[in-house]
Write a structure and sequence with these properties.
The complex is a heterotrimer.
Chain A (H helix, E strand, L loop, with lengths): L3 E6 L3 E6 H23 L7 H8 L7 H35 L11 H16 L3 H24 L4 H23 L4 H11 L8 H22 L9 H6 L4 H22 L6 H13 L3 H25 L8 H22 L2
Antiparallel strand pairs in A: 1-2
Helix pairs in contact in A: 1-2, 1-12, 3-8, 3-10, 3-11, 3-12, 4-5, 4-6, 4-10, 5-6, 5-10, 8-10, 8-12, 11-12, 12-13
Chain B lengths: L11 E10 L2 E11 L4 E5 L6 H8 L7 E6 L2 E2 L5 H7 E4 L11 H6 L14 H13 L15 H14 L4 E5 L7 H16 L3 E5 L3 H7 L2 E6 L2 E6 L1 H4 L2 H8 L3 E6 L2 E6 L5
Parallel strand pairs in B: 3-8, 3-9, 6-7, 7-8
Antiparallel strand pairs in B: 1-2, 1-4, 4-5, 9-10, 11-12
Helix pairs in contact in B: 4-5
Chain C lengths: L2 H21 L7 H9 L6 H35 L11 H16 L7 H22 L6 H25 L8 H5 L7 H28 L3 H6 L4 H23 L5 H13 L4 H24 L8 H25 L1
Helix pairs in contact in C: 1-3, 1-12, 2-3, 3-8, 3-10, 3-11, 3-12, 4-5, 4-6, 4-10, 5-6, 5-10, 8-10, 11-12, 11-13
Classes of the chains: A mainly alpha, B alpha/beta, C mainly alpha.
């Protein structure tokens, strides 16, 4: 038996918590706090750690210069952390639903659906960022529903991914047609956004993302307790008493909702869900109750690091975080592939 | 739960079940009743509908016409959890993530008895331990699914089904992936579960195995029940010829009935 | 249908579309005018010049790109026994573009020299796709894994491309059309030295056809029937990738011809034998010529990029193919 401790309250509550995931979570939380401090400190204008801590503590006053810089930085850092957590969660939800470790909102067309809605919303209707989040949600939902409807009959996991992939590709093409209108500069800017960039994150964005996160992240954690049967396939899941189709639909919708505000504020970030999910599973095994929180923290940490590196390492060029995540993530993935192959 | 055959009311009843996929009828007006304490084997050629029958019984498929009743209640009306508390199914596909730990896999059989806030109780653990002992997989408890052989995985999945502690066991081709020793062991386990008072219904493809362990055999063909009764009554050369299209000679070895092709029989 | 009939039909379609292509444009040219321009050319007649210098050149480029990409796709699908692979879905196109962009940025390469980074990029992409596929399913032969691996590869290389472009956008100003895949008015110039590659490639494909067919039965079966699986496989990949690259160098990454043409071929006359290969070649040419006509006339006088038209239609075609394939497997 694995080591665990249990929360007991009479006969109604009997909640075992495994030791290993708890330890991993603790370590990751500490790393995230440290990372946050460094992220606030580093940048094109360096601050001392003292300034940062003084600014953070509510009972101390920080000087005007620090405050001004922080006004630009803290929304960005907050969004990086929350967005990382939300995308990682979305990716993991899709991985469980499709029973494939490669699933990711970017690969299933959901991000592209959100993108298309945002592009149309911004270009045709000139919507503000807050409304764009809802547009993105509508786009993501519509795409998720469309993909699920097409793959419904075939409750095979493979079908879901293939259909999602195809829809994503078609949508990307459609978006590209709209975006190629302007000159190379606009194209380059759109390219950067389409890979996920936190450059223009405002306080308003941060607030919006925080709101969505406050609702959806706890919901996802609660759902994780019921997700395990899906890992056995729809038939066996039903055999032990789950409702796999309903659950799959619900989880896919949640996955779409989780990326919606991110696509609107930051653009889609591919592979983060895939990488965070993979790392989490390597650390704590397959139990969704354990993987979900670990994936959230992993995602937050990865995006925070990617964004901080992107805006400090290559100065004066600012590399969009999404690109760094893609490149570093896929490379890490490949290295892992070589390692696991040679160990077999 | 009373031991012995045909005791009390049937736990599972099918009335005039018809199920179609696409255009053709896969199940055609089937009526059956299953009692506790009975081990029933459903046999028949490929595509005869036996797996579909099991899925209708498990509530996985909704029949176009007819009623499936669990202890008198219509199956579609019951929630999945309630259903799973009384009826366990071992699916044909043995999908499971390679990184999953065996004790977690078997533990999933307790899903129907868990709630949001309560799981992994001592009662749950007792059921899990007993199931793993019955299937002789206790020493595999800490291994990962990916390290297991096909046979070991199947036995662990059967343990999961036993841990569910349901009155009715539906087994869809449970002896797949198992080598001979474990095939017999699993069938023996199924027979003992029936002897303990459960209703066990298994789809099997090996007629000899079915005759050796099952109390009752349902022979299907083309979506219809061709014969239903004891092995000796059902597995006659006439029925075999009618359903499988091959002329055979039946030889009995104790309870087992073996069908050999006419040409090889001498 | 029988191979002979199929070939006749596709040849007719090809001929018809060629004529249509030469006539269509911002201003429709009557067939008689086209005929005159071709056989009784008057260099001082502006309309003749348009037909020859603009449309005919585009026609040749479009036909070449389509033919070569279609053959590449067919070879890939047969040798990898996977209906969904193509130069675009395996990431070959993206890899080539990324390496070219870096070649321009890091080494200031131009013109013909860019063929080499493109080729390298194509091979790199295939290697990465296989590696990524192997990560999830042990062995990585599962068709889905390869497609996902290709998608990951495409995203990886497109990220790299975006990164490079963001470093100095003005450097790539006149490449924008090529980046999304387009037939420009001067694309026939690189074609002048690339066409031997395409021709040789298609020739080799015809030569290897029989052995490739054997390989579609499975590696072990092919070996017992007398082919050398590893050699044929390596040879075919070494053939398919440069074929695709030769198209990418001229027109940029045009997707889905390599996916759709083999499917049409398979639907109409099957994928075995030399007639199928010939059909696929012509089919690919037909598709891209049609796409070019659409690109030039749909929003006339504004020009659309062929690449984006292909991507949109191809994306929808991919979707249809995926759903049809899954329906068939589930039934």
């Amino acid at each position: 038996m694995r080591r665990h401790f249990t929360i007991r309250l009479g006969s109604a509550v009997h909640f075992p918590i495994d030791l290993r995931p708890a330890l991993v979570l603790a370590v990751l939380s500490i790393l995230l706090c440290i990372g946050m401090l460094y992220a606030l400190q580093l940048g094109s204008t360096a601050l001392s750690m003292n300034d940062v801590i003084r600014w953070l503590l509510p009972w101390q006053d920080a000087d005007a210069e620090t405050s001004a810089i922080m006004l630009l930085r803290w929304p960005r850092v907050t969004v990086a952390i929350l967005a990382g957590a939300m995308i990682a969660t979305s990716g993991y939800l899709l991985q469980v639903v499709s029973r494939n470790g490669l699933a990711d909102p970017g690969l299933l067309g959901i991000s592209q659906g959100g993108m298309a809605a945002v592009v149309i919303g911004a270009a045709l209707f000139g919507l503000s960022p807050a409304w764009l989040a809802f547009a993105s949600l509508a786009g993501g939902f519509a795409t998720a529903l469309f993909v699920m409807a097409l793959a419904w009959r075939l409750s095979s996991a493979t079908g879901l991914i293939l259909v999602g992939l195809a829809v994503g590709i078609a949508l990307s093409a459609a978006i590209e047609i709209i975006m190629v209108r302007g000159g190379i500069l606009q194209f380059a800017r759109w390219l950067a956004w389409s890979h996920g960039s936190l450059t223009s994150v405002s306080v308003g964005n941060a607030g919006m993302v925080a709101l969505w996160a406050a609702v959806l992240l706890p919901l996802s954690l609660i759902a994780s307790g019921q997700m395990m049967p899906l890992l056995l396939g729809h038939e066996q899941a039903a055999g032990i008493g789950a409702s796999p189709r309903r659950l799959s639909l619900l989880l896919t919708m949640m996955a779409a909702a989780l990326v919606a505000p991110i696509v609107a504020a930051v653009g889609p970030i591919s592979f983060l869900g895939l990488i965070a999910g993979h790392i989490a599973r390597t650390l704590v095994g397959e139990r969704p109750g354990a993987v979900m929180p670990v994936a959230m923290l992993c995602g937050a940490l990865i995006l925070l690091i990617a964004d901080t590196v992107g805006r400090t390492l290559f100065l004066p060029v600012i590399v969009p975080a999404g690109i760094l995540v893609s490149i570093a993530g896929v490379l890490a993935f490949l290295i892992a592939a070589r390692l696991s192959r040679s160990s077999r | 739960m009373k031991a012995g055959k045909n005791q009390g009311e049937p736990v599972l009843t099918l009335e005039d079940i018809t199920f179609s996929y696409g255009g053709s009828a896969v199940l055609d007006t089937i009526s059956l009743a299953f009692n506790p304490g009975e081990f029933t084997a459903v046999v028949g050629p490929n595509g005869c509908g036996k797996s579909t029958l099991l899925k209708v019984m498990a509530g996985l498929l909704v029949p176009a016409r007819g009623l499936a009743l669990l202890e008198g209640q219509p199956i579609p009306a019951l929630s999945r959890k309630k259903l799973a508390q009384r009826m366990a199914m071992l699916a044909q596909s043995n999908e499971a993530p390679a990184g999953m730990i065996v004790s977690d896999l078997v533990g999933m059989g307790r899903f129907a008895h868990e709630s949001w806030l309560s799981r992994g109780t001592r009662d749950d653990q007792a059921h899990i331990d007993a199931a793993m002992r019955t299937m002789a997989v206790t020493d595999l408890a800490d291994r990962r699914v990916g390290e297991l052989s096909g046979g070991q995985l199947q036995r662990c999945r059967m343990a999961m089904t036993l841990a569910q502690d349901a009155n009715i066991l539906l087994l869809d081709e449970p002896t797949n992936h198992l080598d001979l020793k474990h095939q017999y062991a699993l069938l023996e386990t199924a027979r003992m579960q029936a002897a303990a008072g459960r209703a066990v219904i298994a789809v099997l493809h090996d007629l000899t195995h079915a005759s050796l362990y099952a109390d009752r055999i349902i022979l299907m063909d083309g979506g219809k029940v061709v014969a239903d009764g004891s092995p000796a009554d059902v597995l006659t050369p006439e029925n075999i010829t009618a359903v499988y299209g091959i002329t055979t000679v039946a030889k009995a070895f104790g309870r087992a009935i073996v069908h050999l092709p006419e040409s090889a029989a001498e | 249908m029988k191979a002979g009939l199929g070939l006749v039909l596709v040849a007719m379609a090809f001929f018809l579309l060629c004529c249509l292509h030469l006539s269509a444009g911002a201003r429709f040219s009557a067939p008689s005018l086209v005929f005159d321009a071709l056989f009784d050319h008057d260099p001082r007649n502006y309309q003749h010049v348009v037909v020859i210098k603009q449309r005919l050149t585009r026609l040749v480029v479009a036909g070449y790109a389509g033919a070569v990409l279609a053959v590449s796709g067919l070879l890939l699908q047969k040798i990898l026994r996977n209906d969904l692979v193509s130069p675009s879905t395996l990431g070959i196109n993206s890899g080539a573009v990324a390496f070219v962009v870096f070649g321009i940025y890091l080494f200031g390469l131009t013109g013909a020299a860019l063929f080499w980074p493109a080729l390298l990029g194509g091979f790199a992409a295939v290697a990465v796709a296989f590696l990524a596929a192997g990560l999830v399913s042990k062995g990585g032969r599962d068709p889905l894994s390869l497609i996902l691996g290709g998608a990951m590869t495409a995203t990886l290389f497109s990220s790299a491309t975006t990164f490079a472009i963001s470093l100095d956008p003005d450097l790539f100003g006149n490449l924008m059309g090529w980046l999304v895949g387009d037939i420009g008015n001067f694309d026939y110039q690189p074609l002048a030295w690339l066409w031997p590659i395409g021709l040789a490639g298609i020739g080799f494909a015809f030569f290897l056809c029989r052995q490739i067919d054997l390989l579609t039965l499975g590696t072990e079966q092919a070996a017992t029937l007398g082919a050398d699986p590893r050699l044929v496989r390596a040879g075919t990949l070494a053939l398919a990738i440069p074929l695709a690259i030769s198209a990418v160098c001229v027109v940029g990454p045009i997707g889905f011809v390599g996916l759709v043409a083999p499917h049409i071929t398979r639907l109409l006359i099957g994928e075995t034998g030399r007639p199928a290969l010939a059909f696929c070649t012509l089919c690919g040419a037909v598709i891209v010529i049609a796409a070019d006509i659409a690109a030039r006339t749909l929003l006339a006088p504004q020009l659309l990029q062929v690449g984006t038209v292909m991507a949109l239609c191809g994306g929808i075609a991919f979707l249809v193919i995926v759903v049809a394939t899954l329906r068939r497997r589930a039934a």
